[in-house]
Structure prediction request, 616 residues.
Amino acid sequence: MFTPKGRYIAVIAALILGTSAAFAQSPNLGVPISSADIAAWDIVILPDGTGLPPGNGTAAQGAPIYAEKCALCHGINAEGGIAVTLTGGSPLTNGIDTAKTIANFWPVSTTLFDYIRRAMPWTQPRTLTDQEVYALTAYVLAINDIIDDADEMNAETLPRVQMPNSDGFIVRFPTLTP
Amino acid sequence: MKQKNLTNRWQDMEPAAGNGLMDRRAFFKEGAVIAAGMTGYTLSESAAAQQLVDDPWSTVQGTTAGKYNRPSEFESAAELTLSNPNGEPRAQQARTPHHLLNGTLTPNGLHFVISRSGAPNIDPDQHQLVIHGLVDQPMVFTLDALMRYPMVSRMAFIECGGNSAPLFSPEPIDADVQALHGLVSCAEWTGIMLSTLLEETGIDPKATWLIAEGADSLATHRSVPITKALDDAMIALYQNGERLMPGNGYPMRLLLPGWEGNMSIKWLRQIKLVDQPSMSHSEARTYTPILPDGKAYQFYFLQEVKSFITHPSPGLNLNGPGLYEISGIAYSANGRISKVMVSADGGKTWAEAALQGPLHEKAFTRFRVPWHWDGGPAVLLSRALDNAGNLQPIRAEFVAKRGEATKVPSVKGFPSQHYNATTSWGIDSDGQVKHVYA
Prediction:
């Protein structure tokens, strides 16, 4: 049953664990599944654009979708309501008093596409089409002056959008972790 | 007459620190003698010296056991506090009442719960775990299949990265230990080591992270370094001996011992091996504490060494001078607790507390120290050390580095994350206990 890679993982695990736990006998009851059967359900995307679906959208296309599906909670002008504001943000130099916003805090653009597609609208998650998600992503980026109103967001352009605070982080893991 | 002699025994012992703290071994040395002299937090003055008769409940047949039993009706105060009891469309927190519990295990019904959109009502026969991405063979595991795998049990605390956040307040908060520290709990978890399943799927050497995703309506997901997955990550199926509670991830959750609770994805349905973190909403935005200079910590992950006193604490007021047991909880993501020091004078002098064994890594350790309260003002606080050498910071030093809110926040708010500094309780001459800054 041990493939070369099986041995690789067992050795790595044993090095880390230093115990016999890594060599627990397994009944091997996992059922193989094809990538094709996973693809439609898997919505993981990565900051380099891996996983972004086909499609495209602009702020102009996103505005009416926003008004219909988002404004009720986030406000007519994205100023916030029962859900957070999607626009603006004060400088982070106020430390922990600062409210985190897309413009003043979020490090990468793909998080926006991912969270809209994954979790929005709150009461009907994963009902937006990919086309709608691209348009809403463009709309939110444009009202924050991160992209121009005419910029089209797609799988190529979105990962290249530079977020204002992308350099604002100190990565703790693994080197700064005690 | 005899009672008077017993309560005087504390005077024969050497105080270990100022303001009445005694040697941690005092209870063990003197055993029942000292225990009998103890003053309870809610001792009734009239309890002694009455002629004894049978109580009414001792003269009739008692209550029949139920099929699933609850604590006594007299313990109804031991409840979670709910931040969002009506399930409005926002996150909800349910906090553990540490001041009404003792020992090291949190009962399942009182384990803290945070969910962003409620607990999905999962049919275990329909639920599956998919492992794919940078593996040799993508696989699906049903719950029936997982039940046949070799299992391990371990104690582990789970703590929200935002637990204790009210202590970033510039002023002490009029709140109890449940409100301040209720987003940490500890249980015995039983399940399958994630490494066992990854051995079956195989790992592409390019995999450096995995994405864990839940079956909640928001499909909450986090990125986890592969090193943690192969170290001590578990697919947990049981919690304190019974199947997971719905709010804690039924029918299966990821358990990453010691790491911020949000990463131990509940209602686990997907593990995808990848070569970079996804920068999910939780890791990109939420669990990223802003520092005073405007930079923010990213990938904080570890819940570092921490302790707090649960007895006494606000709501458990002292009833007259005398002997009390100070006790509390200590834990660290970096290993075992090796020492807890307790002060009764606001940190001027410290006594070493006794640690209740067995000592488990990344789990609650109960500490205890006898204390003679002389009836005067006192400030109690604890400070823990883990066996990796990390010492719990004093609050003033901590907020000097991490920042402090300029206004008193809501006790339910999260002005920042990853507070692990000290907590102080002030005691006035009436025995009232309040949160203070020492």
About this structure: Confidence is low (pLDDT under 50) at residues 1-8, 30-37 of chain B.
